[in-house]
């Protein structure tokens, strides 16, 4: 027996991935559904697109201009826009703003245009019969008016397209309208009002700045006056009046210091002269060599006289004797002159002492004045600290005031010189050809939409289809060998014979495609056990109605036609399906044999054609006993093995009836039938799992009731796909 694969594991295989061949097969399977959905969606998309009223699109272009024109001195209040990407993208959003749309609407009276205002005029009928022709009521409340206003703005915004042209600073403004001239007018107005909005924003900002600066200057002017007044009042209160950059006290002490220096010099000079004179007199000098005496006119005159008298005495002594009266007279005169010289020198020395004393008194008086002035200066210096603070406050206030005053003058000069940060580089031209509807694009959109919708429907239908269709799906989803495909008789090649009994058709058409399917099943079951010949074959299914009994009869007929003896045993206690192949009422059957009330020869009857044998169930006999699990059933199968070459057990469906789980273990092989495109995968998996858990000798799965013509479309890549190529090989 071949190795059995757990069908539960096939669930992982079921979702393992995308199978191209399977997808193509499913696409072929649902080609009609695909076509219907495609045509319907294609028409639904294309018709509204191509039948809409023609629309025209006009385009104007503006450029963000980073160039700066300096026509006024100083820094501008509103700086020019930088040319970076973020700034340009921001301007794009401004161009799409509601505020600009409102300005365009107001400028061109678009709110009075029925194209944009749905509340003007009468309602239009749809397709000529839906709707009414009553005029629309006017808004009665402010909220309703605002709502309608917003509807108009939204309709205008839906018609405008603002996009940056590549990586440049150029922004294109496109507007679509039913009228080509209206499209051009709105596009131009949009660009023009955008520039005007920029300019107004700069003017407004500059004006606001000027007004603020003016109000600020008034405050600062008052602060400056208050600060300067406080400085002057403090100077007066603290005697800190100044002249030529210094206070009066500083100037006074400077003058006193200058006088003090002169007095000290004079005192030193007088003291030096006095000291020199006294030192000369102390050394025995008569005072003639004292500097003051040498400089004295009186002393000089007296010395001249003394020299004259001395000369006269000398002349007299040369003529007269020493006691001559004239000589004595001259000597007395000379002594008198010398006495005057000495008295004058004494007076000079006394005068020097007086000068020294006077200079000392002057110095003392000046020192006292300096001391008093310095005291006053110390007080002034202490007051100067506060004065400096007041002066700094006044200077700071003055500096701020001057800066604001200068900025106010610059701002005032700029108020009438503001310009926009952009310029129009291309005005909108009146379009000559409509931009909508675009027939090629509409067809492409309709095609793509229809293709996507149809593909989605097919994929959805494919996902919902949980049945088995091809041999590959048997192995992929059920993880079991594929035994054979059993065609449906009413789609056979011979339409006239489609109403015949299947076993009779096999005998009359042994070379038909219908007969070939059962011959394949026979070969797979009897000779598919690794060289071991199977004798007892159990045929079952997951659910009722899958052609299990018909398959058992036809399989037996094919075996009988090959010259082997074969018997079909009806093991479905509820349906008793073999009875319909017998022309009379069955009085005794399998249960009577198992109960010992009849023999095999008593109940076995001839099947269709007389070559196969049938062991039916009595029509009126039922039991609740486990007859199939008994030793009597084992003995019966043993006896049938000895009588017939092949024994076929027509069992009940696996899922609803438990009998098959017991009976299947007694067969050599078990064939599981799955109805083509009918039996759910999950049901087939569950039935296979039950058989495997019952240790039944499962041989594989056969597909029953196949429409060979449709399968040729579904089984892409399999042998059945080429059915149209080899169908003539079979005889009718």
Describe this structure in words.
By secondary structure, the chain is of the alpha/beta class. It has helices at residues 10-14, 20-29, 31-51, 85-95, 98-108, 142-159, 180-237, 248-282, 291-295, 297-319, 325-414, 439-464, 471-477, 502-508, 513-526, 548-561, 590-594, 600-603, 631-643, 659-663, 681-693, 708-714, 723-726; strands spanning 56-64, 160-164, 170-177, 242-243, 246-247, 422-426, 482-487, 536-541, 566-571, 605-606, 613-615, 646-651, 669-675, 698-706. The strands form three sheets. It has an eight-stranded mixed sheet with strand order 7-14-13-8-12-9-11-10, sandwiched between helices. It has a four-stranded antiparallel sheet with strand order 2-3-1-6. A two-stranded antiparallel ribbon has the order 4-5. A hairpin with a 5-residue loop joins β2 and β3 (170-177). α7 (180-237) packs antiparallel against α11 (325-414). It is elongated, with a radius of gyration of 68 Å. The relative contact order is 0.11.
List the helices and strands and how they pair.
Elements: H1 10-14, H2 20-29, H3 31-51, E1 56-64, H4 85-95, H5 98-108, H6 142-159, E2 160-164, E3 170-177, H7 180-237, E4 242-243, E5 246-247, H8 248-282, H9 291-295, H10 297-319, H11 325-414, E6 422-426, H12 439-464, H13 471-477, E7 482-487, H14 502-508, H15 513-526, E8 536-541, H16 548-561, E9 566-571, H17 590-594, H18 600-603, E10 605-606, E11 613-615, H19 631-643, E12 646-651, H20 659-663, E13 669-675, H21 681-693, E14 698-706, H22 708-714, H23 723-726
Parallel strand pairs: 7-14, 8-12, 8-13, 9-11, 9-12, 13-14
Antiparallel strand pairs: 1-3, 1-6, 2-3, 4-5, 10-11
């Amino acid at each position: 027996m071949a190795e059995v694969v757990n069908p539960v594991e096939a669930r992982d295989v079921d979702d393992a991935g995308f199978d191209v061949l399977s997808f193509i097969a499913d696409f072929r399977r649902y080609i009609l559904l695909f076509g219907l959905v495609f045509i319907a969606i294609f028409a639904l998309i294309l018709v509204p697109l191509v039948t809409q009223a023609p629309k025209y699109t006009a385009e104007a272009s503006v450029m963000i201009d980073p160039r700066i024109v300096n026509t006024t001195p100083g820094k501008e209040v509103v700086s020019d826009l930088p040319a970076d990407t973020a700034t340009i993208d921001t301007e794009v959003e401004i161009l799409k703003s509601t505020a600009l749309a409102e300005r365009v609407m107001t400028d061109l009276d678009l709110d009075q245009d029925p194209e944009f205002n749905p509340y003007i005029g009468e309602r239009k009928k749809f397709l000529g019969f839906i709707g009414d022709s009553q005029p629309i009521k006017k808004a009665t409340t402010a909220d309703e008016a605002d709502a309608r206003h917003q509807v108009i703005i939204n309709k205008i915004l839906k018609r405008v397209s603002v996009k940056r042209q590549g990586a440049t600073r150029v922004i294109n403004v496109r507007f679509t309208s039913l009228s080509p001239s209206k499209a051009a007018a709105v596009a131009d107005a949009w660009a023009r009002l955008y520039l005007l909005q920029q300019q107004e924003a700069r003017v407004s900002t500059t004006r606001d700045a000027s007004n603020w600066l003016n109000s600020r200057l008034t405050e600062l002017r008052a602060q400056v006056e208050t600060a300067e007044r406080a400085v002057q009042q403090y100077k007066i209160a603290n005697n800190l009046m100044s002249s030529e950059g210094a206070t009066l006290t500083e100037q006074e002490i400077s003058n006193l210091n200058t006088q003090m220096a002169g007095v000290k010099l004079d005192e030193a000079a007088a003291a030096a002269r006095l000291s020199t004179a006294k030192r000369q007199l102390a050394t025995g000098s008569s005072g003639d060599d004292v500097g003051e005496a040498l400089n004295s006119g009186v002393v000089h005159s007296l010395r001249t006289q003394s020299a004259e008298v001395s000369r006269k005495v000398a002349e007299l002594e040369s003529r007269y004797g020493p006691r001559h009266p004239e000589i004595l007279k001259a000597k007395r005169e000379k002594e008198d002159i010398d006495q005057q010289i000495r008295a004058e020198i004494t007076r000079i020395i006394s005068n020097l002492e007086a000068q020294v004393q006077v200079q000392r008194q002057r110095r003392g008086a000046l020192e006292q004045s300096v001391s008093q002035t310095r005291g006053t200066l110390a007080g002034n210096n202490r007051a100067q600290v506060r004065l400096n603070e007041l002066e700094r406050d006044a200077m700071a206030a003055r500096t701020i005031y001057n800066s604001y005053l200068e900025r106010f003058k610059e701002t005032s000069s700029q108020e009438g010189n503001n310009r926009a940060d952009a310029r129009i580089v291309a005005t909108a031209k009146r379009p000559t050809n409509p931009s909508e509807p675009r027939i090629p694009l509409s067809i492409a959109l309709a095609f793509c939409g229809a293709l996507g919708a149809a593909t989605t429907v097919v994929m959805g239908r494919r996902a919902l289809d949980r049945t088995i269709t091809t041999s590959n799906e048997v192995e992929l989803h059920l993880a079991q060998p594929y035994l054979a495909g059993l065609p449906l008789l009413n789609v056979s090649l011979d339409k006239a014979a489609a109403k015949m009994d299947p076993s009779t058709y096999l005998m009359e058409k042994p070379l038909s495609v219908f007969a070939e399917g059962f011959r394949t099943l026979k070969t797979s079951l009897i000779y598919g056990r690794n060289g071991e010949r199977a004798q007892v074959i159990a045929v079952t299914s997951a659910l009722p109605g899958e052609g299990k009994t018909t398959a058992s009869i036809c399989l037996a007929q094919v075996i009988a036609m090959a010259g082997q003896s074969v018997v079909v045993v009806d093991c479905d206690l509820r349906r008793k399906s073999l009875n319909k192949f017998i022309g009379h009422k069955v009085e005794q059957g399998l249960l009577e044999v198992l109960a010992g009330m009849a023999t095999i020869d008593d109940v076995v009857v001839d099947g269709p054609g007389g070559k196969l044998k049938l062991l039916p169930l009595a029509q009126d006999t039922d039991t609740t006993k486990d007859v199939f699990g008994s030793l009597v059933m084992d003995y019966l199968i043993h006896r049938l093995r000895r009588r017939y070459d092949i024994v076929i057990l027509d069992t009940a469906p696996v899922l609803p009836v438990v009998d098959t789980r017991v009976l299947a273990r007694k067969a050599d092989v078990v064939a599981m039938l799955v109805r083509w495109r009918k039996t759910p995968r999950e049901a087939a998996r569950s039935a296979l799992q039950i058989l495997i858990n019952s240790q039944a000798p499962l041989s594989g799965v056969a597909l029953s009731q196949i429409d060979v013509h449709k399968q040729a479309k579904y089984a892409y890549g399999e042998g059945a796909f080429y059915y149209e190529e080899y169908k003539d090989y079979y005889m009718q």
